[in-house]
Amino acid sequence: MRILFLGDIVGRCGREAVLSRLPTLRKTLALDLVVVNAENASHGFGLSPAIATDLFEGGVDVITLGNHSWDRRDMIGHIGSAPRIIRPINFPPGTPGNGSIQVELADGRKALVVNAMGRLFMDPLDDPFRCMNELLSRHRLGVTTQAIVVDIHAEATSEKWAFGNVLDGRVSLVVGTHTHTPTADHRILPAGTAFQTDAGMCGDYDSVIGMTKEPAMARFIRKMPGERLQPAEGDATMCGIMVETDDATGLARRIAPIRQGGHLAQTLPDF
Ligand SMILES: [Fe+2]
Ligand SMILES: [Fe+2]
TM spans, by residue (predicted)? Predict the structure, then answer.
């Protein structure tokens, strides 16, 4: 299965960076499954139902979220009727929506997509490791599903590495989100799970993690409440990772980053 995962979409330029390229990329890279993190898609904060619809119509199969899941309050009432939008699995019991979704591709193959959130330097949450173990007691890679994609939305690189290694051999891909900074450590772990600490963002890198520079810098320098942060809306980079898996085992065969447009060095998978 050929899977594309794109990191946090930030603002209008991030959405356009994705939507302008995805229809072509789906064909040229022969993608079977496209997953995007869209927790910052609505003007940097949250995801509106209308923008979610645009992303699905533009070629996205599953949307993941994170600590900004409910910044747009209309998502709270919407997520229950939109199962392909998932929020972190370790939110407390009773939280609207789900932390995972099993989707069926046009050819009948199945893929399970999961969103989890770290706890280091983040809001307190249930244990994401235990939540994953519980979920994976009901899903077997290569048996009940051909692929399992896990978005670990977390601040700390150590927690993300631990997450990848705990899940090694049991899922197809563990990819980090939330830092908005792509890491150069994409690799296949010893037992066959593809891993990258952070996919990076789809947004304008001439910014402070996607937000306009002046107010973001002032927050650090003046330590006074300032103006609300606004997404930078210049030339955006579409940033993410592509993985090819073996349908028989669900494990990764190849992994490569993708960065298109904007201010970062460009790269495209060569498989
Ligand atoms: Fe984010
Ligand atoms: Fe986040």
Answer: none
Ligand having the closest approach to the CA of 10:
1
- CA dist 195 → 61, 87, 160, 178, 260 (Å): 20, 20, 9, 15, 20
pTM score: 0.98
Q: What is the 49 CA–ligand 2 centroid distance (Å)?
A: 18
Question: Does the annotation count 68 as an active-site position?
Answer: yes
pLDDT tens-digit map of 55-114: 999 999 999 999 999 999 999 999 999 999 999 999 999 999 999 999 999 999 999 999
Residue 205 phi/psi, 5° resolution? -80, -10
Count of beta carbons in the 10 Å neighbourhood of residue 252 = 23
Which of 68, 78, 153, 186 is catalytic? The answer is: 68
What does the alpha-carbon distance between residue 18 and residue 123 come to, in Å, rounded to a whole number? 29
CA 252 to chain centre: 18
- Give 230's contacts (C-beta < 8 A, 6+ positions apart): 43, 44, 211, 212, 215
pLDDT digits (tens, 9 = 90+) for 130-164: 999 999 999 999 999 999 999 999 999 999 999 99
